[in-house]
Amino acid sequence: MRRSLVPVLMLWALPAGAECRLALALAVDVSRSIDATDFVIQTEGLAAALEDPAVKAAIFGPEGTVALAVYQWSGPTHQEIIVPWVMLDGPEPLDGAIWAVRRALRPERQQATALGEALRFGADLLADAPTCARRVLDVAGDGRNNDGVTVARVYDRGGFEGITVNGLAVGEHELDVARYFRDEVIRGPGAFVEIAPQQVDYPPAIRRKLLRELEGPKIGMATPPGVGGKT
Fold first, then answer.
1. Which segment of 114-123, 152-161, 169-178, 207-216 scores lowest on mean pLDDT?
2. What is the helix (H) or strand (E) element at residue 55, kind and residue range?
3. What does the alpha-carbon distance between residue 20 and residue 218 come to, in Å, rounded to a whole number?
4. Which residues share a beta bridge with 167?
5. CA-to-CA distance for 51 and 68, rounded, in angstroms?
6. How many structural domains does the chain have?
7. Which is more confidently placed, 133 or 16?
8. Is residue 121 a contact partner of residue 73, using CB atoms and an 8 Å limit?
9. What is the CATH number for 158?
10. Residue 20 belongs to some domain of the structure
11. Cα separation of 164 and 181, whole Å?
12. Residue 229 within any structural domain of the chain
């Protein structure tokens, strides 16, 4: 079941004198197309990306602090926070977030792909984030919305002002998923789609994606081959 966002407000505090440059919410697909092997690949891939030296250097850069939250999503009633908002102002909070990612369990009940509900949950989560210069929702998925409110309807209802939505499209189970993410899902300044052709490509893809999000949009930056973007 969906967890209340209210308790999240009690779990972070901006250090005195610090400025938050980025609030980053990571949405992890655990719908029924994600089998046990896929789940391990995703979980370990995300944890390894957060441990990567280049990613750590980007997180702890001099530009300001990063706030992080992670949640799982699948059907209309399943969005589960596995890392509440945490200020990554040192190695210890980051290690705690990585530990929480690794200990997360695959849901027992396998549900459909309610991408619209996942986006709505992410917008609500970011509304409760620390005050940061940028707000980014990073949505990974391997299929189109097939249950619950549509992506278009969620965006029509609003609530995404000031939020950039990026996508990580895993192309193993459906054709043209990357195009769907590019045309229907991503939005906001510098929005882009990172592509993992198969689940085994997820770990390097999430690493690339995190680095790009942590560095921020670059004016005039060329789009890498196979990666879509729009503003």
1. 169-178
2. helix 53-59
3. 19
4. 139, 193
5. 14
6. 1
7. 133
8. yes
9. 3.40.50.410
10. no
11. 13
12. no
